[in-house]
């Protein structure tokens, strides 16, 4: 009896050449029963092989790339996701998020998650202090959450995180005793949440590892502009990962991870700019103020828009169709 790997219906892998290796790989992978996985692997192999042929990739360059990925894996940990960092600096993270979480014009755009989100954040109440850095400039954050029909959304889980005044996240300190500069809050019945933080500062992404060395070879700086991260989750709504960036930051137009979008750039004001705000929340009138209105879309809105975009791509490319909202090869 023939073994699984020597069945007669499998293609013979002999006399492989530069010209026929790709079709042979496709052929031997063709029995995959998962249509989406089959399509992904076929497309990946096609692009990888075309890249090698187009660039006349050398064995030395291939070995260097493999070793680079090995080093990316070695330096990665639960609190340092170097592969996410690599995806970020190549622009892939933003691209994938934009494809998988499309947004209509009247909603808040998404951006990169970044490598420093954790699940360690404490649940805090609106009005609490999320950062305890004594050197940070005080900031009051006051935000609303609505749907695309301008209706307030209550009970949204709001995950926020930022660096300290020196540009480091809590997880970058070996001696840390717990989370700081991060929290999970809930929006109230009016869709409002608010908290005390510090004014964000620009900072370099970790550049002591393989990704940082790659940036050096590319003559690119490792800096991100001043920003604060937000993640919104509620059943029935499309998860939103986004950030707000401070206008006028020196790295506003050259973010190392391509996360800045014009709609996400904000200008800080003062608490005194809003009548009665200082008295209502017990704040110094000179405290910096970050005020923003977020707009979430429903799962149904997201699914519909994602499928519409998938069909547009299928119609553009011959031989593709859409199944369960995902591109696959036609049977």
From TrEMBL:
<dbReference type="GO" id="GO:0009712">
    <property type="term" value="P:catechol-containing compound metabolic process"/>
</dbReference>
<dbReference type="InterPro" id="IPR050770">
    <property type="entry name" value="Intradiol_RC_Dioxygenase"/>
</dbReference>
<dbReference type="GO" id="GO:0018576">
    <property type="term" value="F:catechol 1,2-dioxygenase activity"/>
</dbReference>
<dbReference type="InterPro" id="IPR015889">
    <property type="entry name" value="Intradiol_dOase_core"/>
</dbReference>
<dbReference type="GO" id="GO:0008199">
    <property type="term" value="F:ferric iron binding"/>
</dbReference>
<comment type="similarity">
    <text>Belongs to the intradiol ring-cleavage dioxygenase family.</text>
</comment>
<dbReference type="Pfam" id="PF04444">
    <property type="entry name" value="Dioxygenase_N"/>
</dbReference>
<keyword id="KW-0560">Oxidoreductase</keyword>
<feature type="domain" description="Catechol dioxygenase N-terminal">
    <location>
        <begin position="34"/>
        <end position="106"/>
    </location>
</feature>
<keyword id="KW-0479">Metal-binding</keyword>
<feature type="domain" description="Intradiol ring-cleavage dioxygenases">
    <location>
        <begin position="122"/>
        <end position="279"/>
    </location>
</feature>
<dbReference type="InterPro" id="IPR000627">
    <property type="entry name" value="Intradiol_dOase_C"/>
</dbReference>
<keyword id="KW-0408">Iron</keyword>
<dbReference type="Pfam" id="PF00775">
    <property type="entry name" value="Dioxygenase_C"/>
</dbReference>
<keyword id="KW-0223">Dioxygenase</keyword>
<protein>
    <recommendedName>
        <fullName>Intradiol ring-cleavage dioxygenases domain-containing protein</fullName>
    </recommendedName>
</protein>
<dbReference type="InterPro" id="IPR007535">
    <property type="entry name" value="Catechol_dOase_N"/>
</dbReference>
């Amino acid at each position: 009896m023939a073994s699984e790997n020597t069945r007669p219906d499998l293609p013979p892998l002999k006399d492989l050449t530069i010209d026929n290796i790709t079709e042979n790989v496709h052929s031997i992978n063709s029995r995959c029963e998962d249509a989406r996985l089959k399509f992904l692997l076929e497309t990946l192999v096609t692009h990888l092989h075309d890249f090698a042929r187009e660039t006349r990739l050398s064995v030395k360059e291939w070995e260097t790339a493999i070793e680079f990925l090995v080093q990316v894996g070695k330096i990665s940990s639960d609190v340092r996701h170097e592969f996410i960092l690599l995806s970020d600096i190549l622009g892939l993270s933003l691209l994938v998020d934009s494809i998988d979480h499309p947004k209509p014009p009247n909603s808040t755009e998404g951006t990169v998650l970044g490598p420093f989100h954790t699940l360690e954040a404490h649940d805090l109440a609106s009005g609490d202090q999320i950062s305890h850095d004594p050197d940070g400039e005080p900031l009051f954050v006051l935000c609303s959450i609505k749907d695309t029909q301008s209706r307030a959304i209550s009970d949204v889980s709001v995950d926020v995180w930022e660096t300290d005044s020196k540009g480091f996240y809590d997880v970058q300190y070996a001696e840390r005793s717990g989370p700081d500069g991060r929290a999970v809050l809930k929006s109230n019945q009016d869709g409002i949440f608010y908290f005390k933080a510090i004014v964000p500062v620009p900072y370099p992404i970790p550049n002591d590892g393989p990704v940082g060395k790659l940036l050096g070879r590319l003559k690119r700086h490792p800096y991100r502009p001043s920003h604060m991260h937000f993640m919104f989750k509620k059943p029935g709504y499309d998860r939103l990962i986004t950030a707000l960036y401070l206008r006028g930051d020196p790295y506003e137009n050259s973010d190392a991870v391509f996360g800045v979008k014009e709609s996400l750039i904000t200008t800080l004001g003062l608490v005194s700019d809003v009548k009665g705000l200082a008295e209502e929340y017990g704040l110094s009138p000179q405290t910096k103020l970050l005020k923003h209105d977020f707009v979430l879309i429903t799962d149904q809105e997201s699914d519909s828009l994602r499928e519409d975009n998938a069909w547009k791509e299928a119609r553009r490319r011959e031989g593709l169709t859409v199944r369960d909202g995902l591109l696959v090869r036609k049977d």
